[in-house]
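the two lines:
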Amino acid sequence: MIQLDNVSKTYHARSGPVHVLRGVNLHVEKGDKVGIVGRNGAGKSTLIRLIGDIEDPTSGTITRTMRISWPLAFTGAFQGTLTGIDNVRFICRIYEKTFEEVIDFVQDFSQLGRFLKEPVKIYSSGMRARLAFAISLMIDFDCYLIDEVVAVGDARFLQKCQDELFERRKDRALIIVSHDIHYLRAHCERACVLADGQLHEFHDLDDALLFHQEQMAA
Amino acid sequence: MSRSVSNGGLRRSVQIQVRVLSALTLREILTRYGRHNIGFLWLFVEPMLFTLGVTTLWTLTGLHRITNLPITAFALTGYSTVLLWRNMPSRCVGAIQPNSALMYHRNVRVMDIFLSRVALEAIGASMSFVVLSIIFVSLGWMNPPEEPLKIVQAWLLTAWFGAALAILLGAWSERSEIVEKLWHPAAYLLFPLSGAAYLVDALPKDAQNAALWLPMVNGTEMVRDGYFGSSFVAHYSVAYFFTCNMGLTLLALALERAVSRDFIPE
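prediction for all of em together
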C-alpha cells in the first residue's frame, strides 16, 4: 500500500517559492495500475520522486508498506569508471541480493555480452539503458515507478521490456507518468490528472484523459 | 541515514545501514584505486609514502637542531595524526553533488556518503600508522610506544574530530561553494599550526596557550605522550578536546540534517 495524505512540495527558487504540489492525496494498492498525466511542469516527476522517497515532502505524510522501485530505467546512478558487473554488484549489496542469483538474468536480458566487463563510460546510451533496465528488473519490487516511457533500443528489446514488466510482473503495482495516451490506455486501469498542484483522481481512465485534454486546450 | 524498508525495527535498520555503508565503501575503493597494479593497497600505501617522505626529510634536516628527541617517532606521530583528521574533510567537501544520483536508491542518504568516506580515510590513515610503526620499530629506528592505550585514545579522539569536521564542512559545502574554496588553503595553513612539526613545550609560554586552543594540537600532543612521553613534557587537555568534538558533532549533525532534508538529486 502507498498512501499520500495532504502532501505538499515547495521548492525555493531564486525568484521565490514554487509551490509544485498543494495537498495531494493518493492511495495505491498492490497490483494497481495508475497513470499520471499533466502538462509540462505540472509536477509529475516531483510526485514520482516523493513516492519513491528520493525527496521528502515539505508537508504531509507518505506511508509505504510496499517495496518501491526507483524511476525505471534510470541511468544516472552508474559510476562510469566501474564495469557493468561492478555496478550490478553495488546494487546487489544495497538491495540485499546475491550476485549469483541475478547475474544470469542480467546477462540474458541486457545482451551486453563481454561489455559487462568493460567500464560503463564506454557504453552507448542504448547499452546503458539496457543495463539500467536489467538492473531495475533484477530487484523485486512490489511497485514500479515509470517516469516517461522508455523508448530506447530496438523493437525486440522494447518487446522484451514489455513482456518482463507487464506480463511476468502483472501482479505488481505500476505508477506511470506519461504523455503518451496510447501507452496509458494499454497499461493503466485508472489515471490521475495533475493540474495547479492538485491531483484529480478519476476512476474511469477515459474521464481522466478527457479532463486532461480539456486542461491542455484551456 | 538509511531507513528501513519495512517496519522491522532497530535491528533491521542497523543491518541496512551496515550493508549500505559497506557497499558505498567498496564502491569508493574500486572507483578510486581500481583493480590496476596494487589496487586497494593504495588506501594505506599512499599515506605511508607521504609519512615516509616527511619522516625522511625531517630526519635529514632536524637532527642537528632537536637533539634528544626521537626524530623518527616525532615525524611519524605528527604526520600520521595530520593525515587522520585532515583527509576526512578533504574527501567530504563537495562529495554530495557528484554522488547525488545515488540518492535515487532510497536506502542511500547524504549521511551515508559522508560516513563511508570518513570510514575509508580512517582505515587508510590507521593502517598506514600501524604498519609504519611496526616497520620502524622492527628496524630499530625508534622504540616501541610507551603507552599504547593512550595512543589508541588519542587516535580515536582525533578520528572523531576529523569525522565531525568532515561532516560539518561536507554539509556546509553543499550550501555554499566558498567552503570548498576556503578549505584548501585552510588545510594547508593548519598543517604547520596543528602540532605536527613542533612540540607545544618548545613554544614560548603565551604561544603554548594559544596553540592549545586548536583541538587537534591536543590530539597530536597526546599521541606523542603515549609514544615517547618520557622524553618531553606533553601539554594537552582531554576534556577540552572532548568538549570541542562534542560541539563540532552537534553542529555537524544539525547542519547535515538540514542539508539532507532540502537536498534535491539532479
